[in-house]
Amino acid sequence: MDLGAAQFQEKLPGLQELLLGCDFVGLDMEFTGLHSAFSSDRHPSLFDSPAEWYQKARQSVQRFTVSQLGLSIFYKGMSNKYVTHSYNFFLFPTTFGQMDSEFSFQASSIQFLSRYGFDYNKFLKDGIPYMNETQEKKLQHLLSGNWIVQSSFDKDKVKKVIDEVTCWMCSAEEEDSMVLHDMYGFQVIEIQLILRQAFPDIWTIPLEGEKVSLIL
């Protein structure tokens, strides 16, 4: 079964239940590339030890991104047979505020995936957003904040506001401004603290009527 972002939340509880009761799982990942042409000294060699081979492969593949995760969940059945549930998760790096990802494509990998029917529309348009450990720590720091007031502002609304501001900043010029609406009570304070930390180049001004003005 193919799963993208649109179905992921709906299917997640069932997946968790299957994983908790299974005997073992199998994982497979597809990347947009494997061996970078820009790092010839990192190509695996027959003379490499397993540790050296792993380090070279790890460093090389970091130029690329995971495009699909394959998961097979196995249950032991009758007569030494196994029942399996298999899923293909389309993935795409998350964007959040100034957090963005850059990755490369390798022609041979793209040809290989195309040959076996990989759906690039699902990868680009419906990939499940994910982040690496470093990005996750930055996001946790942003959302938890070092400020005192933080309970009243819903995290989904924070993401929506930051996405809105990010889109505006892409085309805004110096001294341009925008206004955020529907900020209530302590949210006016919180959103200013969050935005000033996420976007050091903007200035925020509280306005009357539950609004916050942003100036670049």
Automatic annotation (TrEMBL):
One GO MF term: RNA binding
Domain of life: Eukaryota
Gene3D superfamilies: Ribonuclease H-like superfamily/Ribonuclease H (3.30.420.10)
One cellular component term from this protein's GO annotations in UniProt: nucleus
GO biological process, one term: priRNA 3'-end processing
Pfam annotation, one family: CAF1
Protein family membership: Belongs to the CAF1 family.
PANTHER family to which the protein is assigned, alphabetical: POLY A -SPECIFIC RIBONUCLEASE/TARGET OF EGR1, MEMBER 1, POLY(A)-SPECIFIC RIBONUCLEASE PNLDC1
Protein name (database record): Poly(A)-specific ribonuclease PNLDC1
Organism annotation: Python bivittatus (Burmese python)
